[in-house]
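Q: what sequence does this backbone want?
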């Protein structure tokens, strides 16, 4: 039975950028087990959700996901400066660091320090993978049909 919206699936995957650099895998690092999610529920990026639709158990395929179906286009307006004094005292801030910032809705988002000097900190609020084309090898290992 092919995967449809509402099914719970377990997939093995490898995600890489266009240059071939692997950024995530279900076999290595933090996620050394299959990824489990409900198809169509927004638990994974849109392009990944769409990529598994129609696949069968044991099937493997490669999907290329455009930025708009992944982490969005890179937006220069999301690069902002703030006074250095707004950084909690004693917190080290260096160019290239990724900080977790609390959003108004209580969620945390990664922001990258683009630049820092005595007076200002320049933060990039874009997701670190914004604007990037993502290529995933996906293998469906289990399908639990929607009840």
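A:
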């Amino acid at each position: 039975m092919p995967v449809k919206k509402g099914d719970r699936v377990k997939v093995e995957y490898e995600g890489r950028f266009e240059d071939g650099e692997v950024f995530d895998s279900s076999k290595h690092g933090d996620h050394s087990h299959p990824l489990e999610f409900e198809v169509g529920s927004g638990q994974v990026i849109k392009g990944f959700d769409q990529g598994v639709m129609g696949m069968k158990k044991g099937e493997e395929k490669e999907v290329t996901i455009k930025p708009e179906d992944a982490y969005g286009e890179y937006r220069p307006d999301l690069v902002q400066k703030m006074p250095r004094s707004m950084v909690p005292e004693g917190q080290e801030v260096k160019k290239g660091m990724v900080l977790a910032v609390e959003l108004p809705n209580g969620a945390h988002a990664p922001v990258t320090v683009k630049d820092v000097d005595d007076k200002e900190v320049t933060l990039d609020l874009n997701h670190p993978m914004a604007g990037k084309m993502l290529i995933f090898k996906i293998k469906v290992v289990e399908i639990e049909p929607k009840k």
